[in-house]
Write a structure and sequence with these properties.
With 182 residues, the protein is of the alpha+beta class. Helices cover 35% and strands 20% of the residues. Helix 3 packs across helix 4. The longest helix has 23 residues. The chain is globular and about 65 Å long. The protein starts with a helix and ends in a 14-residue tail after the last helix.
């Protein structure tokens, strides 16, 4: 077990809290992912490589609703997974901070989109997921304070970066680099 794992999340976050008060610029993080064609040249399959994955690649496919084979996780699945993982870990970290014992927990995320906009069947339909829903299961010991549970639920949603990004929207920019092969 590494030294980092031996320190509770509460202690780790207290150290970070103090550090970010002293050096606010260190509070900025950058996450990355890269998508590539991978082994296949067809447009409905590829690979993603996530930062901090030591080069491990995950396969992706495209949903059958837009012409893919739906034989691998699609981008919507990965978006749903990001939301579920972020909300679940945030919930557990805040529970530890509030000293709420969790017996069991699970977050299931569902994303719904009308793909007619993406396929330009109906230009009035937004090209986006129109609804995302998180179903959170939480089992705690009998007699756990209701007020503390309310703080836990509210804080988990408030502090979840992916949840808040999706809820409030975020500016997305694009740089295109185009090479023309001889």
């Amino acid at each position: 077990m590494s030294a980092v794992q031996e320190v509770s999340i509460v202690k780790r976050q207290e150290l970070l809290h103090r550090h970010y008060l002293e050096v606010p610029a260190d509070g900025w993080i950058t996450d990355r992912a890269r998508a590539r064609a991978g082994q296949s040249n067809d447009p409905v399959h590829g690979e993603i490589e996530l930062a901090n994955s030591d080069g491990a690649r995950q396969q992706y496919g495209i949903h059958r609703a837009v012409g893919g084979d739906h034989d691998a996780p699609n981008p919507g699945d990965y978006l749903s997974a990001a939301l579920a993982a972020c909300l679940h870990s945030t919930l557990r970290m805040i529970a530890e901070r509030l000293e709420v014992a969790i017996i069991d927990s699970e977050v299931t995320t569902t994303a719904r989109a009308d793909v007619r906009g993406a396929l330009m069947v109906d230009t009035t339909v937004p090209v986006s997921f129109q609804h995302m829903h998180c179903d959170v299961f939480l089992e705690v010991p009998a007699g756990t304070d209701e007020r503390t549970l309310k703080v836990l639920m509210t804080s988990a949603e408030h502090c979840c970066v992916v949840f808040q990004t999706l809820r409030s929207g975020t500016k997305v920019t694009t740089d295109w680099r185009i090479d023309q092969a001889p």
